[in-house]
Amino acid sequence: MTNGQVARDLCVSVHAVKFHLGGVYRKLGVANRTQATMLLYRYGYGRPVVDEHTSDETAA
Fold first, then answer.
1. How many Å apart are CA 18 and CA 2, to the nearest integer?
2. What does the alpha-carbon distance between residue 56 and residue 1 come to, in Å, rounded to a whole number?
3. What is the pLDDT along the chain (60 residues), one digit of tens a residue?
4. Please, are residues 28 and 43 in contact by the beta-carbon 8 Å criterion?
């Protein structure tokens, strides 16, 4: 989502979104949203969760 979309969804200003994203980026040690996403994928977040108990064969 863009900063504007996030701001509208949370009913805050775009400035507030940028401010808080800056804090998140600083804590993660990244410079932007793309680097933050790459970091999350590296640590296993954002990947599809596969339920071992459900398969195509059992879904009917």
1. 10
2. 32
3. 999 999 999 999 999 999 999 999 999 999 999 999 999 889 888 765 565 665 555 444
4. no
Q: What is the pTM of this model?
A: 0.67
For residue 7, give the amino acid letter.
A
Residue with tokens 């969760």: 49
Rounded to whole angstroms, how far apart are CA atoms 34 and 50? Answer: 25
**Residue 33, both tokens:** 């949203």
Give the Cα separation of 47 and 24 in Å (integer). 21
Token couple for 60: 């009917």
* The residue type at 10: L
